Give the backbone structure.
Amino acid sequence: MNAIEIRNLSKSFRGMYAVDNLNMTVPVGAIYGFIGENGSGKSTTEKLICGHLVPDGGEIKLFGKDYSDAGVRARVGALIESAGCFPNSSVRANLMMQALNLGITNREEEINRVLKIVRMEDSAKIKFKSCSLGMKQRIGIAMALLGNPALLILDEPINGLDTDGMRIMREILVDITQNYNCTVLISSHILGELEKIATHYGIIRQGKLIQEMSAQEMDARSRVFVSLKTKDTNGALALLKRKFGNAKLEEDYIRVYDVDDTEAIVKHLLDNGHKVSEIAKNKVGLEEYYIDLMSKKEDK
Ligand SMILES: Nc1ncnc2c1ncn2[C@@H]1O[C@H](COP(=O)(O)OP(=O)(O)OP(=O)(O)O)[C@@H](O)[C@H]1O
Ligand SMILES: [Mg+2]
């Protein structure tokens, strides 16, 4: 079963397509990383899924039902742009207002549940305006979690967070998917962070989903490289380029791409008088994969 199934979704603003025949499949239980450059259509797609915008055409199914179905709508929580909280009210009061709006009956219990998930049980009395950015983002997630949604849609929730804030957010998202049966669609530009938790990826460009894959598939498609250090970096780099083709310098390390035979590399360097001080096999991460993919598409 898929949490989200989108077919040929389109949305234009003043004749310009922000979302252009987009297809997307998000399996239940996934943390789906939604990636694309500024203006590529991520927020618009998320707003369409949430029903904040009306599509020009196409189909959105959530848990197998049309997204307009009231039952299915009640299972979607979202944090798109800011949390929409009252600055002078406490965290708890803000959650209470939202719980009332949603018609939740066991409000106290539900608020305590979501505060616990976002680890803010001890900060419930703080006024919203006094909360740090990291706390505000977590309050936004708590708001979206009211009513126990099966699908959470998050638009760049880790933007501007410090290392610790990002780590907490990561742990919360993994907790939500693993322990609360919630699927997460998350857009982010911070690919190194996304990579630590995403189980699936969708890459959008000019309103079209140009690639969709599981984290395993991405790993299998990622280029391998050998990273190494020698004393005469420039000499060794020139030598390796001649023998193995694609090699470059990256922060004091020479990278030889698309070769995983470390022995052949070490032998070639030694035969030519270069000692290797460090060597390791690696795979390109999401960020490099993404940059590679984008540059290929630009070539076309
Ligand atoms: N309400 C609107 N009116 C007019 N144009 C809009 C509107 N919303 C979005 N757009 C346009 O649609 C395109 C896609 O915007 P969108 O906000 O979905 O991109 P994004 O991928 O979320 O970008 P970012 O990474 O900067 O958040 C952009 O060209 C944007 O200017
Ligand atoms: Mg956006």
